[in-house]
Structures are given as C-alpha cells and as structure tokens.
Amino acid sequence: MSEAEAKKPQESLQDRLAQVIDLLHRQRLVEQLAHRQEGGHHELVENLVHRQNLAELQRKLDDLHPADIAHILEALPLDDRLTVWQLVKAERDGDILLEVSDAVRETLIADMDDHEILAATRDLDADELADLAPELPRDVVHELMETLDAQQRERVRSALSYEEDQVGALMDFEMVTIRDDVTLEVVLRYLRRLKELPGHTDKLFVVDYDGMLQGVLPIKRLLVNDPDKKVAEVMATDPVGFQPDEDAYEAAQAFERYDLISAPVVDKSGKLIGRLTIDEMVDLIREESESEVLNMAGLREEEDIFASVWKSVRNRWAWLALNLITAFIASRVIGLFEGSIEKLVALAALMPIVAGIGGNSGNQTITMIVRAMALDQVGTGNTMRLLRKELGVGLLNGVVWGGVIGSVAWYLYGSWSLGAVMTGAMTLNLLLAALMGVLIPMTLARFGRDPAMGASVMITAVTDSGGFFIFLGLATLFLL
C-alpha cells in the first residue's frame, strides 16, 4: 500500500469534517441574514433555508460510519455538537455512543431524555449495554434491564460484576459453539443456516454437552480440510484463553504477541462463558496509551477539548499547584546564589541550559522505563542492571554534550574554568536525571500508583532544582 493510499481514509474523514463545519457555518450565516430582513416573507425564507441546510447536513451524516460521526462530534464545540447529534437517526444513537470518548458521551447523554436513551440502547448486545450502563441514569438502566430476556439480563449483570480493567468487563457473549463429534460438513451446513456470523469470527469454539471448552476450530482449517473429517480430528486443543478476572491489559499484550483475532474466556472450571475480540483489545490499548500520556502531563482524567472552562480547570489544577511549588523551590535555589550570579553574569545565561538538558534526558529515561514496566520487562532481578545502564548513558551523554557546551562557554566568555564547570554540571545533572528517571516510576508503582502519574512534572522539578544547585554550587566553589 502506498503512502497516499494509507492516508486516504484519514484525509477523507477530515474532508467530511470540514464539510460538516462548513454547513453549520452556512446555516448560522443564513439565519443571521434572514433575521435582518424586513417584510412578510422573513419567517418563510428563514424556515426554508434552515430546513435545506439541515437536510443536506443529515444526508452527509447518513453516509458516515458511526465511528466517523463520533470523530466529528468530538471535534465540534458543544452547541454544534448537539445540533449534529439531533440530526443523527435514532437507530444509530447507540452505536455512536459506544464510539465516542467518555467525556463527549457525557454531554450527549445529558442532552437526551429517558425515552431517547431507552430507544438508543434497546438493540445493543449485552456487552455493549454493560459498557454504557455506568454512565446512564439509574432509573433508565433499571427500566432497560426489565426489557431484556433472562439470558441477556444475566449477561449484563455478569459483565458489570467485573472491574473495568478485567477481562470479564470486555468479553463478548456472541460466539459460535460446536461439538467435537460432528463432521466438518455438518458444521458448514449449520453455519449456512445462520443469518450472519458474529464479528471477528476467525474460529469456532468446541464445547461438550456441559459447555466445557474442548478446543477451537479455526475457520481456515474448516475450509481446507475434508468435509467428512470429524471436528475432533482437526481442531486445536490448546488455544490461548483467559479467565474473566485476569488483567485486561495483559490479555491485550497476549493478543499482540500471538496475533490473535479472538480468544475464549472460561471460568475456573473450564466452562466457556464468552470471548475476547481484537476490536476490544485495540480500543483498550488506545485508551491505555491516551491515559498514559495524560498521566505523564499530570491530567487526572480524559478531557473534552470543548469542555467548560471550570471543568478543565478542575482537571488540571492539582499538578499545576505542585508545579508551582517546585518552581518556587527552584527559584529559592537560585536565590541562594544571588551573590555568585551578580559577580559572574554569565551564570544567568548558562544555567537554563543545564536544567533544560537534564529535564529532556530525564523524560527520555522515564518514557523508556514506563514502557518497559507496561510490557512487564522490569522485575526485581534486573532493576539494578537497568539503573547502572541508565547511569552509564547519562554519564556518557554528560561528558560528550557537557564537553560541547563547555567548549562553547569557553569560546564565548574566554574562561576555560567556566567551561569546565559547565561540563561538570551537565554531567552531574544528567546522572541525576537518569537516577530519578528510574526511581520515580518504580516508586510510584511500589505504592500502587500509575508509574506515569505526573512523572514528567516530577522529573522536570528535580532536574531544574538539581541543575541550578549543581551548576551554581560548582561555580561558587571554583570560579569565585
């Protein structure tokens, strides 16, 4: 696939977003012009143009996949978002609610009354209902559960009984099961009688009469083997499977490691109770990645980019307050050496370089460590080796790049001793950055916190204060 072809779907989606925004803009513009008109035809003209614009906008939306509409809704300010949401056909509301981010979903549900929510969710599968249930009004969930049959109700309750980071909360109940004592021809006839196969069906699940998992029959084996063979002869008896209380992110890693499309979920006795599919795993990995990025920046939760000012402030204030405290500490460190800075003005120009390079190096180390921890590559047996390696990297970078900036300082200010202090300060601060880059995420993990939580803020605070102290301290000792 060429680069242009690879980019085409995304460009097409952006084009459609631009078209929706243009139609919304034209609608507002025409309404403003119609309001300025005088005469008896004013209201008629306004209504006619208004309906024409909305009809064209609705036609655009009808052609889009629910995921594309979700992307458009997330990219629109609240007023425009609700205008577009009202134009979406009611039977598509549930699928779109599943696709949008949690923050945007909250704004959409708040705009719906109970009857609209019930209509939107009534045709969803049990696992999809379980995804939405925590964000729906309690009385709506109760009424919705009453409309389900006993099997669906039990499935929803089962999915809701697990934590959101467990396999059971993500498993799908729609799957095809077969017996191992029938022929492949019988299986093929059975499949032909179905209206359609559940999404992401790459294998059929082989169970006994008690529902105990015996193995899986990959579709490719079903198609290429002799139809007269029994299922037991061609099925795989050792499939990768999961239990509902396992960690969902570890399951996602297994999907990536073994190139899975679907996998069985069994209870402790080995009974098949559901399956995991690749679409849920991809969503989980994306959400985990987004959450990690937010955590490293000190954001407490996912934020709607068009959320109210107050809501955004509440999401961001905590780590900004911490950052303010650390910045004050850094300023006090500088204050300790005011006399030195007054005697040698060059120190004021050079000290931000030491702190800045240290912060960048520390962030690189933290990113590598957090990634390794997410992939379970860091354990008690290799922690010290990892620390020594990062200290070695910091030492080498400090000597090389400290030497470079030290030479520049020598050239600019004509002082070889200032260049030497610059080299030494850079080396020591990069060693500090490496040390803290390993210790910060590991300490957070030891106390049961997300190792990425505010890591970027903390490493910057340490390297700023430490860099200023090291550089100004060395300068005071050796230059003044």
How would you summarize this macromolecular structure in one to three sentences?
It is built from 22 helices and five strands. With 480 residues, it is mainly alpha-helical. A hairpin with a 5-residue loop joins β4 and β5 (272-277).
Mean of residue pLDDT values:
86
Give helix and strand order, one letter per element, not per position: HHHHHHHHHHHEHEEHHHEEHHHHHHH
Secondary structure category: mainly alpha
Spatial strand arrangement across the major sheet:
1-2-3
State the fourth-level CATH superfamily of the largest domain: SLC41 divalent cation transporters, integral membrane domain
Whole-number tally of structural domains? 3
Chain-wise SSE layout:
Elements: H1 3-36, H2 42-62, H3 66-74, H4 78-87, H5 93-99, H6 102-110, H7 114-121, H8 126-132, H9 138-147, H10 150-160, H11 167-170, E1 177-178, H12 184-193, E2 203-207, E3 213-218, H13 219-224, H14 231-234, H15 248-258, E4 262-266, E5 272-277, H16 278-296, H17 309-336, H18 338-343, H19 346-374, H20 383-413, H21 416-446, H22 455-479
Parallel strand pairs: 1-2
Antiparallel strand pairs: 2-3, 4-5
Helix pairs in contact: 1-2, 3-5, 7-9, 8-10, 15-16, 17-22, 19-20, 19-21, 19-22, 20-21, 21-22
Structure explained in plain terms:
With 480 residues, the protein is mostly helical. The chain folds into three domains: 162 residues, MgtE N-terminal domain-like (MgtE N-terminal fold, Alpha Horseshoe), CATH 1.25.60.10; 120 residues, CBS-domain (Roll); 171 residues, Tetracycline Repressor, domain 2 (Orthogonal Bundle), CATH 1.10.357.20. Helix content is 69%, strand content 5%. It contains 22 helices and five strands. The protein has a three-stranded mixed β-sheet. Strands 4-5 form a two-stranded antiparallel sheet. α17 runs parallel beside α22, α19 runs antiparallel to α20 and α19 runs antiparallel to α22. The protein is globular and about 90 Å long. The N terminus is likely disordered. This is Magnesium transporter MgtE. Acts as a magnesium transporter.
